[in-house]
Amino acid sequence: MIRSASPRVRPLLILPALIALSACGGGGEKATKNGRGNQGPAQVGFVVVQPTSVAQTADLAARVVAFQQSEVRPQVAGIIRKRYFTEGTLVRAGQTLYQIDPRLYRAQANEATANLNSARANAEATRVRADRYRPLAEIEAVSRQDYTDAAAQARQAAAAVEQSRAQLETARVNLSFTNVPAPITGRIGRSYFTEGALVTTNQTDPLAVIQRLEPIFVDIQQSAADLLALRRELASGGVVPASASVRLKLEDGSDYGQTGRVEFAEVMVNAQTGTVTLRARFPNPQGMLLPGMFVRAQFAQAIDRQAILVPQQAVKRDPKGQATVFIVGPNDTAVQKVVQADRAQGEFWVVTGGLNPGDKVITQGTANLRPNAKIKPVPANTPQRIQARPAGEQPSAPAKAG
Asked: CB-side exposure of 340: number of CA atoms within 13 Å?
């Protein structure tokens, strides 16, 4: 049976344990001083920035519009007897698309032809009568009034001939309108009227719609405020105009292989959306772009010749949302600067203010960097050097509790 130690013996047993723990704690403090406490300033990587020419690119919503569009409408009323095209195919300008019942208009043309022949016969008779009265009136065999009346009737008959000729021309034109032609060359859609349908000259719906898709237009919407800011920059001389080349990103996220050009900008602002329409022209040989399709247009509107490109990992945001960077300051200290970085280009932020040419912007080692902290700056991507230990020295291990 083991008896418990008396109360007088317990303090003697606890004292050695406290001494051992004290020794372990002193060893840990020494290890700390020999470890991280002797590492010195943090090593950071920097890049030297210089002004460069940077394109001011725009990524805007756009919509595809047909290069030409024509609604096929009847110019005479009647019953559609035949349709001569296949829906969705390519039709040529002047190609007959529909035939309207021509019988009524052919009869009108025949009637106008007969009226013209009658007018010609009457004009010939009145002309001969006036010619006969002329010498008789000179010798006073007939009165001067009779000759005047005969000459007037001859002129009226000649005018009637011209009227009849015009009516015949109108009848022939109406007869030709019974064959409805294609106004332009393009791809025709579905037919809104079938054979046997009655069509009129004042109807609301067209017979069909033809659209020319090669080339094709893309209407780009840009806010009036952005366009105004761009024009002010161009007027100040800080930026210069860029080429009007445009690239497209389709609805599925893929790039359209062809490149287009901006042709003009509207001279008015849409009152409902506050945007200005810019129209670009694109080749469309494969018919990939269809009217009504929504796309994204990417193009450079101007070139800033004094911008600075800074790697994105160097730019941070403070609680106010301002962009900040660390640069190498005097005596190898980290200096924080507020910069103007409103847009990105690839892997860089485009900085338009806050930096000077030749500044050393810290791009590596910024995770725990604080303003005015001592640093060891080296060019970015410099490999970190690890000093070799003296021969026989073993790496220090963390002290264990005794």
From this structure: 6
Please state, in angstroms and rounded to a whole number, the distance separating the CA atoms of residues 400 and 24: 7
Residue 17 burial (C-beta neighbours within 10 Å; 0-12, 13-18, 19+): exposed
pLDDT, tens digit (0-9, with 9 covering 90-100), for 300-334: 777 777 778 888 888 888 888 888 989 898 888 88
The neighbouring-strand residues paired with 56 are 302
The CA-atom distances, in angstroms, between 253 and each of 256, 286, 297 are 9, 18, 12
Q: Structure tokens of 237?
A: 């001389």
| Contact assessment for residue 187 and residue 88, using Cβ atoms and an 8 Å cutoff | yes
What's the Cα-to-Cα distance from 126 to each of 17, 137, 321, rounded to whole Å?
150, 16, 98
Is 28:396 a contact under the CB 8 Å cutoff? no
Q: Cis before residue 371, ω within 30 degrees of 0? A: no
Write down the pLDDT at residue 263: 82
pLDDT tens digits, one per residue of 352-366: 888 888 888 988 888
82 vs 98: CA distance, rounded Å: 6
